[in-house]
Write a structure and sequence with these properties.
Blueprint (H helix, E strand, L loop, with lengths): L6 E2 L5 E3 L5 E3 L3 H11 L6 E2 H9 L7 H15 L6 E4 L2 E4 L7 H17 L3 H12 L17 H24 L4 H17 L4 H13 L3 H19 L5 H12 L37 H11 L1 H7 L18 E6 L6 H11 L8 E5 L12 H11 L11 H12 L5 E7 L2 H4 L10 E6 L10 E4 L5 H12 L10 H5 L4 H13 L5 H10 L8 E2 L2 E2 H14 L3 H16 L6 H8 L3 H13 L4 E4 L2 E3 L2 H17 L12 H23 L4 H7 L9 H6 L7 H22 L5 H16 L2 H18 L2 H17 L3 H18 L2 H17 L3 H18 L2 H15 L4 H18 L2 H17 L3 H15 L5 H17 L3 H17 L3 H17 L3 H15 L6 H10 L2
Parallel strand pairs: 7-10, 7-11, 8-9, 9-10
Antiparallel strand pairs: 1-2, 2-3, 4-6, 5-6, 12-13, 14-15
């Protein structure tokens, strides 16, 4: 039998050889890896899941390498190393039919169940015996708890007990010999000792003792069982035991083969075929794919036909696994979980002829306390025919009774509005013919074996369709109507709005949209009769706030801070600062908010609320602010201004560390770090307490995550906060080098206004100079010059020579671009003199570079000499920006000389040096030169690829200026290919992007288009 087996989980995890020889698996970690893969046979198990299985929730820093080593060891143990393959995002272990003992056990169990139901006792005995022969001990024994699979093992143990019952039942019906009956008695006695409340084993033992002439002992078994049930659970034995007791008292069947009395099927509760589903939702709309996936998961016939195929819920939907299919539909309040569950359940009624059970668990029902598992079990047992006076008081006994009652049936159970997995777990049936739909705001990830279907808000078109169906308004309600956006595409909110439109025919959709838009909070418009978005959201928040768990109270406080701050996204570090807790607690609080669907995890470690949750969070923050000092239990202590000040202070400290990581050592870093008159006194201490970035790449990554938050904070609080000029000054190098020109302008204009309000001249000069840099990056040299000169005047007045030098250098660069070469030369030479006086080689090299650009107009060879001087300084001080810029500028000088072949290696070297250092302006100018050089040497295919890459990166940054320059080059490449019309289209787009700039390309585009 075992020759086909290769893997064993029914006992300590083992491997089988081709001859059936059992081979143990080496180390504990290797065993844990094997089990984690076998729990999902033939499917990809992610690296993160495997790490959790091997190290629990705290994998070491070396986990990735260690996991790879364990995979290698496991491959050596397998009969074929190719069974275990790396498939993103993890590993998959190929397991064939009949190779895993659990699957073989489940196959025999399904066959035994069918034979038992058909009273085919010979087949039932054979299949049960074959199933039980596979057991070597407790499933997954010898593994540490972090490996998981506890619920998996419990289900297998419960199934084994059922199979034992079927086997002994079959033996009794097959008239065993007296010797066999004598041997059955001690086996069953051991089982009753191990399971003192399991009535089926006691019944079987009573019958065996009776049929071997031991009536007194049989009656004693009944007496002891009844006393135990009455004393511990307050219930009498069930009808099956009572029937056996009556047979013994009457003396039927003693010493004989089973007769009429013994032919009765095992006496369990007879369900009255309940049909408890509430009416299906009217006007159910959308979710076709999810609806079909849930149906495929639950439909017994389709699951059987699906075989080992997977369903979108994640795990395979196969009926032969011996367990019911469980679908968990999760999502935020009002997203339509119950509607989908009932819609699917009604469509499956015919597939479950033994009935449909429904329980509202009230996990998040306004004004209701969640049902306890005991309350829910009592309700379900009554629904399947149990007499109320015989209901077990002990929850475990009640759960076992429910499983026994439903095991032979095909029943559909809907558990609506579950609070958590602990509330659901005791209610699950044991029969493979059953299916369960659970709805919950939580995905119930602790519920093993469930298929999960998280719901998002509806699409625009489905939202509009629901509005039309419920309101009866057919005209003017398309997916683009403002009501769709204002309701957040949330079915509950859509139904409220539609109900209001249906009730007031004079109220037009446009007028209602105007009301929702005009008000500060939408939520009071999203209430009608018993429908209320606010009440649905408040249930979760109120439960968190009233909880005794630290993570729950932290979560309630975090939601209030989120409402007070109102940023695009949040992470644990920011929430920790806002709530005054450590990051571990902040992580736990965010997890709880996700679990109750008040936040969504939009990316790893980043969280954002739905728009209507955002409105609710603002309300609770505003209510606390208006109420003044909170009670001791209140979750929202600081007002919105205090919360914003904490956030700005935190961002300013980290921005200072990003400055250190991004800007090379020298005067610019020192100058930007120097306090100005309005800088808050505690900033230096905040920076000292903030960890440094290990690299510039990590500083850029932090900026990419947080820039939208910084912009929102700065814009909103520029009129009131002293941190705004400081934060913008410190974060400017990241924003400028990332090429985020749109955000750059918004930030600098806000900082400029704040600096003037505070009367901080130095902060004003910083903002003017950085704003000038933004105008230069977008091709508006004239405006940049005016702003730079205003900043230069302030620095001269303040006597800050390093910034006077920088202002002169920028002035010379801008004048060169405007064609005012004499003035440019004067400014650059003054800047060069100041650089030497200040002893700053970096700024000296930058000035040489700008002088080279100026000389390129008259003597490109002299320009190259200046760029090489800049390069030499860059090589000496090992400065990436200087070296990459120098090579780029030398390349442009060679292009001016008509030497594209000489220019090409300099552009390539410039990009190589820059790598991932982060300087969008430098990168874009280098790539533009590279495209020109490649076109010049005739490599048009590579030129087109580089041009497309440049255009893609420019569009991603909303950099219209660089995009226009790239489209100019793309048009030239298209013309070279003979695609004139396509070229003209590109030039028209380029001209539209560059029309308001000072770029000389504008004139060239005019000439190109004139020839059309």
């Amino acid at each position: 039998m075992r020759n086909g087996l290769r893997f064993g989980l029914l006992g300590p995890p083992v491997l089988y050889g081709a001859d059936g020889e059992v081979r143990s698996v080496g180390s504990g970690k290797t065993r844990a890896l094997l089990v984690a893969l076998l729990l999902e046979p033939g499917r990809v198990v992610s690296v993160d899941t495997l790490k959790d299985a091997l190290w629990g929730g705290a994998p070491p820093a070396s986990a990735q390498a260690s996991l790879h080593n364990h995979v290698t060891r496991l491959r050596r143990l397998l009969d074929n190393p190719e069974r275990l393959r790396a498939v993103a995002p993890g590993y998959v272990l190929r397991v064939g039919e009949g190779e895993l003992d659990v699957r073989v056990f489940e196959h025999h169990t399904a066959a035994a169940r069918a034979a038992h139901a058909e009273r085919d006792w010979g087949r039932a005995l054979g299949e049960s015996t074959a199933a039980l022969a596979l057991w070597r001990g407790a499933p997954l024994s010898g593994l540490p708890p972090e490996t998981g699979g506890h619920a998996f093992g419990q289900r297998l143990e419960e199934t084994r007990l059922l199979v034992l019952e079927w086997r002994y039942e079959a033996e009794l019906h097959l008239a065993p010999t007296p010797d066999r009956l004598d041997r059955l008695a001690p086996e069953l006695a051991a089982l009753t000792t191990g399971h003192p409340l399991r009535e089926s084993f006691h019944r079987l033992l009573m019958l065996v003792l009776h049929r071997t002439g031991r009536q007194a002992e049989a009656l004693a078994v009944h007496r002891d069982l009844r006393a135990r049930l009455v004393e511990e659970l307050g219930v009498e034995p069930g009808p099956a035991v009572r029937g056996a007791h009556l047979e013994i008292l009457r003396g039927q069947g003693a010493g004989t083969a089973p007769g009429t009395a013994e032919d009765q099927p095992p006496a369990v509760l007879t369900p009255p075929q309940p049909a408890q589903l509430p009416p299906p939702p009217a006007h159910f709309t959308g979710r076709e794919d999810t609806r079909e996936a849930v149906r495929l998961t639950l439909d017994p016939e389709r699951r059987t036909a699906a075989g080992d195929g997977a369903v979108p819920g994640g795990r395979p939907a196969v009926a032969s696994d011996g367990m019911p299919a469980v679908a968990v539909i999760s999502g935020m309040a009002g997203v339509g979980k119950s509607a989908l569950a009932l819609h699917v359940a009604h469509g499956l009624r015919e597939r479950f002829p033994d009935g449909q059970l429904y329980v509202n668990l009230h996990g998040a029902t306004p004004g209701m306390t969640p049902l306890t598992p005991g309350q829910a079990l009592a309700a379900l047992l009554r629904d399947v025919g149990a007499e109320p006076r015989h209901l077990p008081e002990h929850p475990d006994a009640a759960a076992a009774l429910l499983r026994s009652a439903l095991a032979p049936t095909r029943t559909l159970m809907v558990l609506d509005d579950a609070a958590n997995a602990a509330q659901v777990r005791p209610l699950l049936p044991a029969g493979a013919g059953c299916a369960v739909i659970v709805t919950s705001r939580s995905p119930l990830t602790a519920l093993d074996g469930a298929h999960r279907f998280p719901l998002a808000p509806l699409s625009d078109e489905d939202s509009a369709a629901l509005l039309r169906a419920v309101s009866g308004r057919r005209d003017g309600l398309s997916g683009a109507h403002p009501l769709v956006e204002l309701t957040g595409r949330l079915p509950l909110a859509l139904r409220v709005v539609a109900a209001r439109l249906a009730a007031r025919r004079a109220l037009t959709p446009d007028a209602l949209a105007g009301q929702l838009t005009a008000t500060e909070g939408r939520l009071h418009h999203l209430e009608y009769d018993d429908l209320s978005v606010r009440r649905s959201l408040a249930v979760a928040h109120d439960a968190l706030r009233a909880s005794e768990r630290e993570a729950d109270r932290d979560a309630a406080r975090a939601l209030c801070r989120i409402g007070a701050l109102d940023l695009p996204a949040y992470g644990a570090p920011l929430l920790a600062r806002l709530c005054g807790i450590d990051e571990r607690r902040a992580d736990a609080a965010l997890d709880r908010l996700v679990d109750v669907a008040l936040l969504e995890e939009t990316a790893y470690g980043r969280y954002a609320p739905h728009d209507l949750v955002r409105d609710f969070a603002r309300e609770i923050a505003g209510a606390t602010d208006r109420a003044g000092a909170p009670d001791a239990g209140e979750s929202c202590a600081p007002g919105p201004d205090d919360v914003a000040d904490r956030a700005l202070r935190w961002y300013a400290a980290i921005a200072a560390r990003s400055l250190e990581a991004i800007v090379e050592p020298g005067l610019e870093r020192e100058d930007r770090s120097r306090p100005t008159g309005s800088q808050p006194a505690g900033h230096a201490e905040d920076v000292a307490g903030t960890p440094k970035f290990p690299s510039s790449e990590e500083a850029f990554a932090w900026g990419d995550l947080e820039l939208h938050n910084v912009v929102a904070l700065v814009v909103r609080h520029a009129p009131t906060s002293r941190y705004v000029p400081l934060l913008v000054r410190l974060i400017n190098p990241y924003v400028q080098r990332s090429g985020r020109v749109v955000e750059l302008e918004v930030l600098q204009r806000a900082a400029l206004g704040a600096a003037r309000r505070l009367g901080d001249a130095a902060a004003e000069a910083y903002a003017l100079g950085d704003l000038a840099g933004m105008h230069f990056m977008t091709g508006r040299a004239g405006e940049a010059l005016a702003l730079n000169d205003r900043a230069l005047a302030i620095w001269r007045r303040l006597g800050v020579l390093s910034w006077v030098r920088r202002g002169l250098n920028n002035r010379g660069m801008l004048l060169e671009g405007l064609g005012r070469h004499a003035e440019s030369s004067e400014a650059l030479l003054q800047s060069l003199e100041l650089s030497r006086r200040l002893g700053d080689p970096y700024t000296e090299a930058v000035t040489y570079s700008h002088l080279g650009n100026l000389y390129e107009h008259t003597d490109p060879r002299a320009a190259i000499a200046h760029h090489k001087r800049s390069l030499a300084i860059g090589d000496t001080i090992q400065d990436v920006i200087l070296r990459h810029s120098a090579h780029c500028n030398i390349g442009y000088a060679h292009l001016t000389l008509g030497e594209p072949a000489a220019a090409l290696p300099h552009f390539e070297e410039s990009l190589r040096i820059l790598g991932g250092h982060g300087d969008w302006h430098g990168e874009s100018q280098t790539r533009l030169g590279l495209v020109r050089a490649l076109r010049g040497v005739g490599d048009r295919e590579r030129a087109a690829e580089e041009c497309d890459l440049l255009l893609c990166r420019a569009d991603r940054r909303a950099d219209r200026y660089t995009g226009g320059l790239a489209r100019h080059q793309r048009g030239l490449l298209l013309r070279d290919r003979g695609q004139a019309e396509a070229a003209y289209e590109q030039w028209e787009l380029a001209l539209a992007a560059l029309a308001k700039t000072d770029s000389p390309v504008v004139g060239q585009l005019g000439e190109l288009l004139a020839g059309r």
